[in-house]
Amino acid sequence: MTWLVVGLGNPGDKYAATRHNVGQMVIDELVSRHNVKLSSHKSRTHIAAFKLGVGVDAHPVIVAKSQSFMNETGGPIKALANFYSVEPQKIIALHDELDIPFAAIRTKFAGGDNGHNGLKSMTSAFGTAEYYRVRLGIGRPMGQQDPADFVLKAFSKIEQKDLAEFIVRGADVVESLINNGLELTQTRYNS
């Protein structure tokens, strides 16, 4: 069974290094680690494919970055899932999470969107919230800063010191989720 791993974010260089695109940063790490290249797909996504594991137990994996804005993510991801016949229960959405401290990671299956427009769009497009989420903590803004502005800013200098390790752990979590399942992954990585 093929897995579809989706990094939520906004397209273009303007947004590439922002907190909202941390899920896409994890996709870049997976692409690099498996020595594949992203290419354009007719579903308005950039995708790459690889196998996770060895032999007959290897899992086919497609990683994707939507090329539409966050609040319109659902359509392209649904089109991609349809193209590869992937059920929502085999989709992992990687997304920024305001309610988790910076660099903490939580995994879960299904649930609400917690005000996240990318998840809201996916749930609407699929007609179900029954897909996996890797929630990548970005923390809340200090003071009176609007969360909508905060997520569209780059990580602070202090955060950038730990960002690479955070992204690597995000990729480790994805691989663990596919290879070992939710419970073991939560035990090992939910911080």
The appropriate CATH architecture is 3-Layer(aba) Sandwich
Structural class: alpha/beta
The radius of gyration is: 15 Å
Order of helices and strands: EHHEEEHEEHEHHH
Shape: globular
Tally of strands: 7
Give the total of domains. Answer: 1
Helix share bin: 25-40%
Read across the widest sheet, the strand sequence of neighbours is: 2-3-4-1-5-7-6
What do we call the CATH homologous superfamily? Peptidyl-tRNA hydrolase
Poorly predicted runs of 5 or more residues: none
Number of helices: 7
Name of the top-level CATH class: Alpha Beta
The profile of the biggest β sheet is: 7 strands, mixed
In the CATH hierarchy, the third-tier topology is known as: Rossmann fold
| Strand residues, percent | 15-25%
How would you describe what is shown here?
The protein is an alpha/beta fold and 191 residues long. The chain has one domain: Rossmann fold. The chain is built from seven helices and seven strands; from the N terminus they run E-H-H-E-E-E-H-E-E-H-E-H-H-H. It has helices at residues 13-16, 22-33, 74-83, 117-126, 147-150, 157-180, 182-189; strands spanning 3-7, 39-41, 45-52, 59-66, 91-97, 105-109, 132-137. A seven-stranded mixed sheet has the order 2-3-4-1-5-7-6, sandwiched between helices. Strand 2 (39-41) and strand 3 (45-52) form a beta hairpin. The mean pLDDT is 94.
